[in-house]
């Protein structure tokens, strides 16, 4: 597991998330821990190292 900090695309607060680096490519929905809006998270690991992270708002 790896902790990653990013900015919520809704409320602009910095939040942290634990990422599972045992799966090389993942896309999932996670609610912001501050404003509770849904965020689509897209991540990719190469050799257990984070090479891509994207956090997008969901269709508004």
UniProtKB/TrEMBL annotation:
Pfam families recorded:
Zn_ribbon_21
The record ties this protein, via InterPro entries, to: UCP037225, zinc_ribbon_bacterial
State the source organism's domain of life: Bacteria
**Record protein name field:** CPXCG motif-containing cysteine-rich protein
């Amino acid at each position: 597991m790896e902790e990653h900090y990013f900015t919520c695309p809704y409320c602009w607060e910095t939040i942290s998330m634990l990422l599972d680096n045992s799966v090389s490519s993942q896309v999932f929905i996670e609610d912001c821990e501050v404003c509770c809006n849904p965020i689509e998270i897209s991540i990719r690991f190469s050799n257990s190292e984070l090479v891509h992270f994207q956090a997008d708002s969901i269709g508004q």
